[in-house]
C-alpha cells in the first residue's frame, strides 16, 4: 500500500481494523496502480454500492480503508464493502464518461442517479413528395428530417399546431392521404392546403389550380427555416413574395401571405428568447437550474432551440444524501480538489454527465452552479465541438435562468409535499393493519414496504386480462407493473382468473423461497464463507410483498386464500378491498384472508386513501390493457395496416369478408385473393404476415 505521512494521533481518526475486510479485498487495494481510472465497490449480496473515478486509483481507494469513518454515511458504505473492481483508463475525461455510464447502468446505492427511461420526442417531417409533419420518438431515419429534441410531448404538439396555422402542412397518416377523394375538415378551416387531392386536378375540375408539389415544397422549406431559427430571413422572403403578388394584382394570394406573416410575427413575439451570443451564432441553449432541500434535489432543464423557448422539464435524482457525503470525502482526498463541492454543484455535475451521455448536447449551457472544466472538456471531446457553460449570465439570459431556478424551487417543493403525504399514508396503513416490516437494508424500513394489487378486467368475458401494480418507496413503481392474459377459463369467471394470475405470480416465488430455506445453514443469509475464510456474495433471499391487495370481496379473497394455502405462503398478507354500501367511494371495507373480521378505516383515513389509490391504479391498468387487447382481437387493424398495399378500404373489405382478423388469419391464399382489390401477390403477403 502507498506510503502516507504519519497522522497526528490526537486529531486524526483511528485506522481501520484490517480484520474487518476480506483479505482478498485488502490485497486488491494494495496492488492498485497510481493511474486514472474508475472503481466499483460491491457488498456481500453482489450489489454495487458505489462507482467512483480517480486521478490516482491507489491514493483514492486506499483512503477508504485507512481510517475509521465511524457512524457516518461513508462509514456505513465502507462497512458493507467485500469486493472491488477497477478499470484503468488513459485520461480523466475517459474516466468521467465511464463512471457515469456505469452509474446509469448499475444503479449504485451511494451515487447520485438520474433515471429517465423515456427518450426525447422530436418533430418529424417525412421525405415524401408532400411531406407530413408528426410527433416522433425512436430511431432516426436519414430519409426524414427531425427537429428537436423537445422537453415533452406537449411542446411537440404545440409546435405542430403552430405550423398548421402558419404553413398549413399536412398531418394525416399516409394511408389516409393516399385514399382521399376530397380534402378533410383541416382544409376547410385553413389548417392544411389539401395536398391529398392535388393529383386529382386533371380529372376533377374542382381541384384545378390546386397546390402543386413545388408550392408545397416551398411551404415545407419555410417551416424548416422557422424550426431552425432563421426567422428574419423567413419573414423577409415571405414579405418579398407578398409584394410580388400585389404588383401582379394577385391580391388574394398577397392577403394569404400577409396573414401568414402576421401569424408568424405574433408567435415570434410570444416565444422568441434572446439567447444568442455576441456574433449571433448561438441559438441552441440548455438552461439548467438546481435546488437541493430536505435530502431531495431537482434539476430543471429548459430548452431553447432556434431561438425559441420550448419548455421546461424537471428531473429528480435518487440517493442524494448518501452520495453527497461520499463525494465530499472523495473531493477532500483528491489533491486537485482542495475544497469539497456543494451539494448543488454535485447534483448539477451528475446530471450533466449522465444526461448528455445519450441526449443531444447544444453548444451552450446556462447553469445556476459552476461546472468543472474537466467535465466540460469531456463533453466537448464527446460532442466534437467546444461546449460552453455560462454561470451568472447577464441581460436576457439572466432572466431565463432565474425563471428556470424558480421552476426548480416550485417542482422540488411540490415533490417534498407529495412525498411527505405519501409517507404519512404508508405509515398509517402499516399501523392500521399491524404489518410486520422486514428490514430490507433501507435506513427506514417504512421505505421498503412493498404492496402488490391485482384486478381482473374483461367485457362480457372477452379479452380477459389481469393486472398487477406495485407500490414501494411511497410511490407507484410503473416499471414493475405486469399484465397477464387469462386463458383456459370460462368466460366471465373472475374467480378462476384470479386463481390463475396468483399462481403465475407467486408459484415460482414460493418454490424459490422453499429452496432458500432448505439451503440455509449456519452462514449469514447473504454471505457464504469459503475455504479461505473469505466472504462470497450470494443472491438475496426471495420474499413476498408486505401486502397483497385484491380488488374484490369475500369470494375473491377466498380464492386468494386457497392459492396461498396450496403454495404454503403467509395468509396474513392477503387483504381484499370490498366496495361499501352503494359502491360509494370512501365506504370500502377491508377483508382479511386469515379470518380476522372486516375493517372499516373511515372515509377520511389516510390508510384508506392509499388503499384506494393503489386499487384505482390497478383498475386503470387492467382496463387499458383489456381495451387494447379487445380492439386488436376485433379489428386486427395494426396487423393489416402494417402490410404494404393495405389501406383502410382493403382492410375493411377483408374484415367484412372474413368476419374479423381471426377469419383473415384462418383463410388460405386462394380465399384471400377472391376479395375485390386483392391480387395474388398481395394475398400471399397478407398470409405470410399473419402466420
Which descriptors would you attach to this protein?
five-stranded mixed β-sheet; 43% helix; globular; 691 residues; GIY-YIG endonuclease; 22 helices; seven-stranded mixed β-sheet; single chain; Nucleotidyltransferase, domain 5; alpha+beta; disordered N terminus; 16% strand
CATH topology of the domain at 445-514 and 540-629: Nucleotidyltransferase, domain 5
Q: Choose one word for the global shape.
A: globular
**Helix share bin:** 40-55%
Please give the CATH class of the domain at 445-514 and 540-629: Alpha Beta
Strand content range: 15-25%
Report low-confidence residues grouped into runs of 5 or more. 1-15, 272-281, 522-538
Structural class: alpha+beta
**Number of beta-strand segments:** 20
Radius of gyration: 32 Å
CATH architecture of the domain at 445-514 and 540-629: 2-Layer Sandwich
- Gap from first CA to last CA: 65 Å
The main sheet comes to: 7 strands, mixed
Mean pLDDT: 79
DSSP helical segment count: 22
Instruction: Write the CATH homologous superfamily of the domain at 445-514 and 540-629.
Output: UvrC, RNAse H endonuclease domain
Amino acid at each position: 500500500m502507498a506510503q502516507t505521512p504519519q497522522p497526528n494521533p490526537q486529531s486524526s481518526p483511528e485506522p481501520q481494523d484490517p480484520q474487518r475486510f476480506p483479505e482478498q479485498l485488502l490485497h486488491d487495494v494494495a496492488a492498485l496502480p497510481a493511474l486514472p481510472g474508475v472503481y466499483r465497490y460491491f457488498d456481500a449480496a453482489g450489489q454495487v454500492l458505489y462507482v467512483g473515478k480517480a486521478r490516482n486509483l491507489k491514493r483514492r481507494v486506499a483512503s477508504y480503508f485507512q481510517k475509521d469513518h465511524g457512524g457516518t454515511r461513508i462509514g456505513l458504505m465502507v462497512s458493507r464493502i467485500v469486493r472491488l473492481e477497477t478499470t484503468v483508463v488513459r485520461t480523466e475525461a475517459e474516466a468521467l464518461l465511464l463512471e457515469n455510464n456505469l452509474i446509469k447502468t448499475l444503479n449504485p446505492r451511494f451515487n447520485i442517479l438520474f433515471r429517465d427511461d423515456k427518450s426525447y420526442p422530436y418533430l418529424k417531417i417525412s421525405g415524401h413528395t408532400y411531406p407530413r409533419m408528426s410527433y416522433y420518438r425512436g430511431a432516426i431515419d436519414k430519409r426524414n428530417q427531425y427537429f428537436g429534441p423537445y422537453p415533452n410531448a406537449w411542446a411537440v404538439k404545440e409546435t405542430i399546431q403552430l405550423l398548421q396555422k402558419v404553413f398549413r402542412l399536412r398531418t394525416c397518416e399516409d394511408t389516409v392521404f393516399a385514399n382521399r377523394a376530397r380534402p378533410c375538415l383541416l382544409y376547410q378551416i385553413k389548417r392544411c392546403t389539401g395536398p391529398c387531392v392535388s393529383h386529382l386536378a386533371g380529372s376533377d375540375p374542382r381541384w384545378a389550380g390546386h397546390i402543386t408539389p413545388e408550392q408545397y415544397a416551398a411551404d415545407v422549406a419555410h417551416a424548416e427555416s422557422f424550426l431552425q431559427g432563421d426567422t428574419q430571413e423567413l419573414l423577409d422572403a415571405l414579405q418579398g413574395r407578398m409584394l410580388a403578388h400585389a404588383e401582379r394584382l394577385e391580391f388574394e394570394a398577397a392577403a394569404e401571405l400577409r396573414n401568414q406573416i402576421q401569424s408568424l410575427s405574433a408567435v415570434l413575439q410570444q416565444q422568441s428568447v434572446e439567447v444568442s451570443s455576441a456574433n449571433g451564432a448561438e441559438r441552441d441553449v440548455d438552461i439548467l437550474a438546481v435546488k437541493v432541500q430536505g435530502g431531495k434535489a431537482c434539476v430543471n432543464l429548459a430548452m431553447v432551440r432556434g431561438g425559441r423557448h420550448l419548455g421546461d422539464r424537471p428531473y429528480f435524482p435518487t440517493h442524494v444524501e448518501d452520495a453527497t457525503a461520499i463525494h465530499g470525502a472523495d473531493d477532500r482526498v483528491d489533491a486537485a480538489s482542495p475544497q469539497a463541492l456543494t451539494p448543488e454543484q454535485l447534483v448539477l455535475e451528475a446530471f450533466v454527465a449522465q444526461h448528455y451521455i445519450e441526449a443531444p448536447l447544444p453548444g451552450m449551457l446556462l447553469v445556476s452552479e459552476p461546472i468543472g472544466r474537466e467535465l466540460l472538456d469531456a463533453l466537448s471531446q464527446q460532442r466534437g465541438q467546444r461546449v460552453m457553460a455560462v454561470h451568472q449570465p447577464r441581460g436576457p439570459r439572466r432572466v431565463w435562468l432565474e425563471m428556470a431556478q424558480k421552476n426548480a424551487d416550485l417542482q422540488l417543493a411540490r415533490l417534498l409535499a407529495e412525498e411527505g403525504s405519501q409517507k404519512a399514508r404508508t405509515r398509517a396503513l402499516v399501523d392500521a393493519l399491524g404489518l410486520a416490516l422486514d428490514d430490507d437494508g433501507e435506513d427506514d424500513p417504512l421505505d421498503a414496504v412493498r404492496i402488490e394489487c391485482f384486478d381482473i378486467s374483461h367485457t362480457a368475458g372477452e379479452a380477459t386480462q389481469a393486472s398487477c401494480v406495485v407500490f414501494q418507496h411511497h410511490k407507484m413503481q410503473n416499471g414493475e407493473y405486469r399484465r397477464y392474459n387469462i386463458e383456459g377459463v370460462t368466460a366471465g369467471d373472475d374467480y378462476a382468473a384470479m386463481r390463475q394470475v396468483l399462481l403465475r405470480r407467486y408459484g415460482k416465488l414460493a418454490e424459490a423461497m422453499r429452496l432458500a430455506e432448505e439451503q440455509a445453514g449456519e452462514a449469514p443469509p447473504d454471505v457464504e464463507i469459503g475455504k479461505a475464510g473469505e466472504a462470497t456474495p450470494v443472491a438475496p433471499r426471495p420474499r413476498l410483498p408486505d401486502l397483497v391487495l385484491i380488488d374484490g370481496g369475500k369470494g375473491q379473497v377466498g380464492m386468494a386464500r386457497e392459492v396461498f394455502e396450496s403454495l404454503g405462503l403467509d395468509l396474513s398478507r392477503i387483504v381484499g378491498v370490498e366496495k361499501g354500501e352503494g359502491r360509494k367511494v370512501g365506504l370500502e371495507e377491508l377483508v382479511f384472508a386469515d379470518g380476522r373480521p372486516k375493517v372499516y378505516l373511515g372515509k377520511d383515513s389516510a390508510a384508506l386513501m392509499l388503499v384506494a389509490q393503489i386499487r384505482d391504479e390497478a383498475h386503470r391498468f387492467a382496463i387499458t390493457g383489456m381495451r387494447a387487447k379487445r380492439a386488436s382481437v376485433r379489428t386486427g387493424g395494426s396487423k393489416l395496416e402494417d402490410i404494404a398495399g393495405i389501406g383502410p378500404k382493403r382492410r375493411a373489405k377483408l374484415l367484412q369478408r372474413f368476419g374479423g382478423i381471426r377469419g383473415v388469419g384462418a383463410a388460405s391464399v386462394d380465399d384471400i385473393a377472391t376479395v375485390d382489390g386483392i391480387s395474388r401477390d398481395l394475398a400471399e403477403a397478407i398470409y405470410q404476415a399473419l402466420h
